[in-house]
Amino acid sequence: MSADGSIELPFGDGRHLFRLAIGQWRKLEELRKLGPLRLYDRVRNGDWFTEDLYQSIRLGLIGGGMAAPEALRLTDLYFDDWLKARGLLNAEGLVAVIMGASLVGMETDPVGKPKARAAARKPASRASTATPSPPAASRRSRSTG
User: Fold this and answer.
1) Considering the domain boundaries, does residue 109 fall inside one?
2) Residues 6+ apart with CB under 8 A from 108
3) Do residues 9 and 74 make contact, with C-beta atoms less than 8 angstroms apart?
4) What contacts 145, CB < 8 A, 6 or more positions away?
5) 120 within a domain of the structure (yes/no)
């Protein structure tokens, strides 16, 4: 998963990049008459319609960078067969992951970055704990103006 909500998952003939960006969510809202959270809850709670799954996969492929005609062709070609082979509940899981990645947008690096946490745990070096020496005294000329 990445910060932009995209995620690579297996579907049909291989692994594909899926992403539901705002444009895809708007289209889903229009097609399904539900907002993102209501649709996501419906999918996660098992209260979905087959068209919820179909349109989410198709629009997720488009959001992932696939041209709309190719996404339609791929979804039409594989959706029914993929569901027969894997079952509807696996399609539910696929769509829930696509939607979750979009809504949460998790980065692949953990929060707090391990390197930064490790550096914070290391004792400070002598150079960084030494008191800085005062700046050399300098004589400023006085203005006589």
Assistant:
1) no
2) 1, 2
3) no
4) none
5) no
Q: Which of 101, 91, 103, 107 is nearest to 58 (CA)?
A: 91
pLDDT at position 134: 45
Phi, psi for 90 (deg, rounded to 5): -70, -35
Q: How many CB atoms lie within 10 A of CB 53?
A: 20
Tokens of 79: 């959706």
- Residue 75 falls inside a structural domain: yes
Radius of gyration of the chain (CA): 27
For the chain, the domain total comes to: 1
Rounded CA-CA distance 62/24 in Å is: 8
Residue 82 within a domain: yes
Q: Three-state secondary structure along the chain?
A: CCCCCCEEEEECCEEEEECCCHHHHHHHHHHHCCCHHHHHHHHHCCCCCHHHHHHHHHHHHHHCCCCHHHHHHHHHHHHHHHHHHHCHHHHHHHHHHHHHHHHHCCCCCCCCCHHHHHHHHCCCCHHHHCCCCCCCCCCCCCCCC
Give the lowest-confidence range in 22-31, 76-85, 100-109, 132-141: 132-141
pLDDT at 41 over 60: yes
For the segment 27-40, the average pLDDT, to the nearest whole number, is 95
